[in-house]
Amino acid sequence: MKIKKSANIQGIDLRLRPALIAAEKVWYEYGHELVITSGLDSTHSAGSLHYYGLAIDCRTRYFQKNKHRLIARDLKQLLADNFDVVLHNDHIHIEYDPFKNFKRR
Fold it and tell me: CA torsion 36→41→46→47, rounded to 10°?
């Protein structure tokens, strides 16, 4: 696993560990080393879980476009339900959402 120079993963929540392990496995299966491009750095949408250390972005630019959905699917299959995997144009966003299955009354 590599970390982009400008990416800051120092202080990410330990609950992201399964996502890092799963992503490393999936990237390896598709022939590339995992590169984390963002963690607690950069600007994200309001309310983003990046700001709480609960999200990372992973590079996809070296994969053929037709592989991106397969990679996201494979990653999601390896993770528990409280993880979200979101495919973007130039990366895959992975977040641990502790309230994902929380039901409001």
Answer: 70
Backbone Cα Rg of the chain: 13
Per residue in 13-34, pLDDT tens? 999 999 999 999 999 999 999 9
Is the overall model pTM greater than 0.85, yes or no?
Answer: yes
DSSP 52: G
> Domain locations in the chain?
2-96
Q: Which of 28, 45, 54 is nearest to 88 (CA)?
A: 45
Q: Determine the Cα–Cα distance for residues 17 and 19; give it in Å rounded to an integer.
A: 5
2-96 has which fold? Answer: Muramoyl-pentapeptide Carboxypeptidase; domain 2 (3.30.1380)
pLDDT tens-digit map of 84-105: 999 998 899 999 987 776 655 5
How far apart CA 81 and CA 91 sit, in angstroms, is: 21
Long-range CB contact pairs, 98-101, < 8 A, 24+? 98/15, 98/54
